[in-house]
Design a protein that fits this description.
The chain is of the alpha/beta class. The protein contains 11 helices and 17 strands. A hairpin with a 6-residue loop joins strand 2 and strand 3. Bound molecules: zinc ion.
């Protein structure tokens, strides 16, 4: 039996629970045999020493990401935001034809494609073999590798150090946080700026976003925790922006302490804001825990009250997997879940008997209710449903609280 539950960053004893989702399969493991999947504990804790919120289930990153299915370019909006971001970074930090840009977890080249035709040296590092292949086929230089201290040294044998490192939505997903930071430092020139994007813990807590918790997502950051983490490595946070990605994220710019670049006022302002929201206080997490337990009861009540209605879902992503498993919903509560990703159609929500079916004009005529799981794309999905049916349907979302409306 495990006796010690220690912080992954500072080794402090973890005693403050955030939420216990229970035993669930990995969120992206779509299969035809969903009930045979191995389940792993998903239990979130808050470290009272370094403020890092984390789950303690040890999983090998290699297993999770080797065939990861997410292709960033699938979302047009995402691609145009990436262009805006890279253009701004190049301008702000005076990146020129002598500079090198490195993107970690560069996916299918959704971001690097925008600098492919500029006279700037660049390369991407992408762990998933199938995705790196897609990027290289498009002519976007991508090294298929995990980033760790060993591979970073290998990479530098043939490639330049970076003047700008971009690591969007990857920092929360690396189990070995110390090794990952050391690897980034290996890749940095002295004046290098690191730009990372992570979902903001403040939104998770404030808006009951417990469905953003899944195994592949190891860490849930506040700026206060990031500041402590980077400080250990003589790195400083120089700028921060709140962005809308994933229901509210932070875009954080980091530099070496010796870099004379100015620290923007926004950094301290956000730290103050987090202190005011009590994100560094353990009681906040006790209150969150109670609130989410109450929401679970309300979701179960909703299904009981509507048990004679035909309920479908929309969006078979990680959010749906966590929510459905946490609330122990099954085919009796939700008949099918619509999705548009070809690879998921015909498979099941991991750990349940709820099948994923193709969304399109053949939408079932007897549907009474559709639950929209990706609440961050609610209006987009609502329009999609409205565009293919004239039937009066009740649309429901569960986060931050149960809300519903009728269309048509
Ligand atoms: Zn800690």
């Amino acid at each position: 039996m495990k006796s010690k539950n220690l912080c992954n960053f500072c080794n402090y004893q973890l005693s403050q629970e955030v939420i216990n989702i229970g035993k669930t399969p990995l969120a992206n493991s779509y299969t035809n045999h969903p009930l045979k999947l191995t389940k792993h504990m998903l239990h979130l804790f808050f470290c009272t020493n370094c403020y890092l919120v984390q789950h303690s289930t040890k999983l090998k990153g290699e297993n999770i990401f080797s065939q990861y299915q997410y292709f960033s370019s699938y979302s047009k909006n995402f691609v145009s935001l990436a262009k805006e971001n890279i253009d701004k970074l190049i301008k702000t930090y005076k990146i020129n034809d002598k500079s090198t840009i490195v993107e970690i977890a560069s996916n299918d080249g959704y971001l690097l494609q925008h600098i492919k035709n500029k006279k700037i040296n660049y390369y991407g590092i992408e762990p998933a073999k199938n995705i790196a292949k897609v990027a290289n086929k498009k002519g976007i230089k991508t090294i298929n590798s995990y980033l760790n201290t060993k591979s970073s040294k290998e990479i530098l044998k043939k490639n330049n150090k970076a003047d700008l490192i971009i690591a969007n939505n990857v920092f929360a997903h690396v189990p070995k946080i110390h090794n990952f930071i050391k690897s980034m430092i290996n890749l940095m020139t002295n004046n290098c700026i690191i730009c990372i994007e992570v979902p903001h813990l403040k939104n998770l807590i404030k808006y009951n976003q417990f469905d953003t918790i899944y195994h592949e997502h190891f860490y849930y950051f506040s700026l206060s925790s990031l500041k402590k983490i980077f400080k250990e490595y003589n790195l400083k946070i120089i700028d921060v922006d709140k962005i809308n990605t994933h229901g509210g994220s932070l875009r954080v710019h980091i530099a070496k302490n010796e870099n004379k670049v100015k620290i923007r006022k926004k950094v301290n302002n956000l730290i103050k804001e987090e202190i005011e929201s009590k994100l560094t206080k353990k009681n906040t997490y006790t209150i969150f825990n109670k609130r989410v337990n109450k929401l679970k009861k309300e979701i179960l009540k909703f299904h009981k009250q509507n048990q004679n209605k035909k309920i479908y879902g929309f969006g078979a992503a990680a959010k749906a997997c966590t929510l459905i498993n946490y609330c122990e919903l099954n085919f009796n509560s939700i008949k099918y879940i619509y999705d548009e990703t070809a690879a998921k159609i015909g498979k099941y929500i991991p750990g349940t008997d709820i099948k994923i079916i193709k969304f399109g004009r053949n939408i079932n005529k007897n549907i009474d209710i559709i639950i929209i799981f990706p609440w961050n794309h609610y209006s987009e999905i609502k329009k999609k449903i409205q565009s293919i049916t004239k039937k009066r349907i009740q649309l429901v979302r569960f986060i931050p609280n149960i809300k519903s409306e009728f269309i048509n």
